[in-house]
């Protein structure tokens, strides 16, 4: 396993290096001058030039890029020149909320996706299979912002059982924090749960169609034992890989869901930084998301290799 990890690390580091260059280059192509935004519409050219020099925006782009990489390596993210405060502190303040939302959504993905997959593959009721197919199709077809509005209308306006937005940290008040977490986590999780459920359903059906399963069925082994001891373990390795990919999608989708439910995470910080052309904050946020995605994929590959030792030698 250690050798497999060492073989994967160089490609992960290369992805991060390429991602840092792409993030830096794309932001420089965005219209607008941060110095002009900070100086205001009535500022003179000399004032804008002074601000540009103070922020290092008058240096050549390669120098700015290398300076940014150096700061990342040393852990000095520098100040936010538009929002105010240190970039590291701003990211740390929103990171806990986004991680909390993502983990809550991931739990929904595992539970709902597992239920969709197992019921869709093993239920003998045509109505149950039809209902599962309808729910997963709807979860994939309806955009998250529509799903969020519908959830708020149902559970907050009509039933009045859950708050429509905001956040109470789970560590501060777990019982109240769960109530605020349920709707945004469910909204974020539904599309990924539908994908996972369909993928798991196909995997279980393929496993149940194998010759050894048919032989075991003819020998009188209980269907439940075949499912949990044979079909499900054989269907898990590719599902684990898909779950890692969906975790990255959850991180990206959290930005939109946070805006819908007024969840004070990295999504709101990214929106403020983009509007104000705060390059350091946006760069660090985007690279942070890529880094988390790469680490999740690396961990997923390790779990996949543990479940299926054959891929360790590929």
Write the layout of secondary structure elements.
Layout: H1 2-29, H2 34-39, H3 45-55, H4 61-74, H5 87-122, H6 126-141, H7 144-158, H8 174-208, H9 211-218, H10 223-260, H11 266-275, H12 279-307
Helix pairs in contact: 1-12, 5-6, 5-8, 5-10, 5-11, 6-8, 7-8, 7-10, 8-10, 10-11, 10-12, 11-12
Tag the structure with descriptive keywords:
314 residues; mainly alpha; 78% helix
Question: Mind explaining what this structure looks like?
Answer:
It is a single chain. This protein has about 325 residues and is mostly helical. The chain contains twelve helices and no strands. About 30% of the residues are buried.
H/E series, N to C?
HHHHHHHHHHHH
Helix content: over 70%
Distance between the termini: 12 Å
User: What oligomeric state do the depicted chains represent?
Assistant: single chain
Q: Provide a count of the helices.
A: 12
SS class: mainly alpha
Overall geometry comes to globular
Sequence stretches where pLDDT stays below 50 over 5 or more residues: none
How much of the sequence lies in strands comes to: under 5%
Rg over CA atoms: 24 Å
Strand count = 0
**Largest sheet geometry:** none
Task: Give the averaged pLDDT, no decimals.
Answer: 80
């Amino acid at each position: 396993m250690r050798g497999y990890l060492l073989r994967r690390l160089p490609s992960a580091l290369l992805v991060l290096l390429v991602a840092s260059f792409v993030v830096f280059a794309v932001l420089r192509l965005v219209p607008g001058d941060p110095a002009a935004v900070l100086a205001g519409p009535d500022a003179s050219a000399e004032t804008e030039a002074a601000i540009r020099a103070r922020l290092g925006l008058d240096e050549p782009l390669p120098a700015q890029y290398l300076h940014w990489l150096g700061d990342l390596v040393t852990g000095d993210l520098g100040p936010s020149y538009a929002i105010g405060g240190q970039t590291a502190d701003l990211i740390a303040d929103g990171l806990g909320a986004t991680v909390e939302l993502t983990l809550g959504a991931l739990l929904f993905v595992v539970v709902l996706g597992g239920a969709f997959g197992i019921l869709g593959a093993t239920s003998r009721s045509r109505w149950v299979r039809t209902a599962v197919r309808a729910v997963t199709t709807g979860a994939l077809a309806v955009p998250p912002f529509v799903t969020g509005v519908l959830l708020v209308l149902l559970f907050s306006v009509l039933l009045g059982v859950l708050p429509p937005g905001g956040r109470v940290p789970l560590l501060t008040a777990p019982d109240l924090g769960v109530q605020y977490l349920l709707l945004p986590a469910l909204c974020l999780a539904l599309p990924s749960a539908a994908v996972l459920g369909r993928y798991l359903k196909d995997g279980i059906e393929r496993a149940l169609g194998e010759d050894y399963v048919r032989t075991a069925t003819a020998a009188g082994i209980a269907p439940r034992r075949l499912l949990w001891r044979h079909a499900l373990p054989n269907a898990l390795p590719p599902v684990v890989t898909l779950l890692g990919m969906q975790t990255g999608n959850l991180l990206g989708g959290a930005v939109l869901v946070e805006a819908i439910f007024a969840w004070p995470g990295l999504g709101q910080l990214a929106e403020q930084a983009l509007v104000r052309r705060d390059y350091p904050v946006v760069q660090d946020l985007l690279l942070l998301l890529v880094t988390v995605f790469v680490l999740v994929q690396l961990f997923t590959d390790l779990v996949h290799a543990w479940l299926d030792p054959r891929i360790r030698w590929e």
